[in-house]
Design brief:
Elements (H helix, E strand, L loop, with lengths): L3 E6 L6 H12 L4 E4 L18 H11 L4 E8 L5 H14 L4 E6 L4 H6 L7 H20 L3 E4 L4 E5 L12 E4 L6 H8 L2 E5 L3 H17 L8 E8 L5 H15 L3 H5 L2 E2 L3 H13 L4 E6 L5 H16 L1
Parallel strand pairs: 1-2, 1-11, 2-3, 3-4, 4-7, 7-8, 8-9, 9-10, 9-11
Antiparallel strand pairs: 5-6
Length: 311
């Protein structure tokens, strides 16, 4: 299977018209376009930056594009009832003509959750919620009727018509947790998405995922694997240095952790870095765009890096 290259577009700090123009541009160049599921900006800044809601943004993305696969990497299941997520996913699949893929996760942005009045329990509880939610959503996307009773969620003889256009709408689970997250990926998912981690750690975690698959007699090759990389490309070393300063300012104490998963380099170096992730097992690599970005660098990525990698 050939490597897919995508763009993970944060719907923040730009107008909807600007974002729609960007989507149309990307639709001619990339294999995948996604949004993220936040009410506040990421990285957190106290709700001081304009930010659009994810599900409605995806409706516009689905209608605006024609070629790229699309989705959200990933929806936090604590923000919406799982049956509602399933219903929206099927609807988005119809709007897009069968191009939608659903990403789910346990969430991390406690600041926005607290501000909006959502409970934000410990990570163990949130992962239990993810397990139950994914069970319900898979049922509603594939079965005529679904019943499930769990600690956090339940449905009673529920249907979700129409079903998606795709016979099996892909479900991605996102996260880096070795003991529980990757176990849930092996149990439930069609794909695993990792965010902002180094080549070495991605390869190691991919091996852990293989082990979880083997424990439940699942063929590891039936799972797609993707990585999101922060877009901090510069067309010169001076621009790369400026992008590094920008990353540190935005992420503060977390900068050291996320820098390992950043495309913080020149276009020529980006080709080697992307190929390293491919060799580590990535089937798809997405650059995470946070406005404002270096437009010249983005053009270089779309017009030079992608053809070089694909060629």
């Amino acid at each position: 299977m050939s490597l897919k290259l995508g763009a993970h577009v944060g719907q923040q700090n730009m107008s909807m018209d600007t974002m729609r123009t960007l989507w149309r541009k990307l639709d001619e160049k990339v294999d995948w376009i996604s949004a993220w599921d936040h009410f506040y900006e990421a990285p957190p800044a106290g709700g001081t930056i304009d930010h659009f809601e994810a599900m409605t943004t995806l409706g516009a993305l689905a209608a605006e594009t024609k070629n790229a696969r699309l989705g959200c990497l990933v929806f936090y299941v604590g923000y919406r009832n799982p049956a509602s997520i399933a219903k929206a996913a099927a609807t988005l699949d119809h709007i897009s003509g069968g191009r939608f893929e659903l990403g789910l996760g346990a969430g991390w942005h406690e600041q926005e959750a607290t501000a909006y009045g959502y409970d934000f329990p410990g990570v163990g509880t949130r992962l239990d919620m993810l397990d139950e939610a994914t069970t319900i959503i898979r049922g509603l996307l594939t079965q005529e009727r679904t019943s499930f009773t769990g600690k956090h969620y339940s449905v009673d003889n529920a249907s979700s018509l129409p079903l998606p256009i795709q016979d099996r709408l892909p479900i991605w689970l996102g996260g880096l947790g070795e003991k529980k997250t990757l176990k849930l990926v092996a149990k439930h998912a069609d794909g695993w998405n990792a965010a902002y981690t180094s080549v070495e750690n991605f390869a190691r975690l991919s091996g852990v995922l293989d082990t979880w698959c083997e424990k439940i007699d699942r063929d590891p090759t039936t799972l797609q694997r993707s990585i999101n990389l922060m877009f901090h490309l510069g067309t010169s070393q001076a621009e790369v240095d400026a992008e590094r300063e920008k990353l540190v300012t935005a992420w503060g104490p977390a900068a050291r952790r996320v820098e390992g998963g950043a495309l913080l380099c020149t276009p020529a170096e980006a080709v080697d870095r992307i190929n390293a992730y491919r060799e580590a097992g990535a089937d798809m690599i997405n650059v995470a765009l946070r406005a404002p970005w270096n437009e010249e660098a983005l053009s270089a990525y779309l017009d030079e890096v992608i053809p070089a990698v694909k060629g």
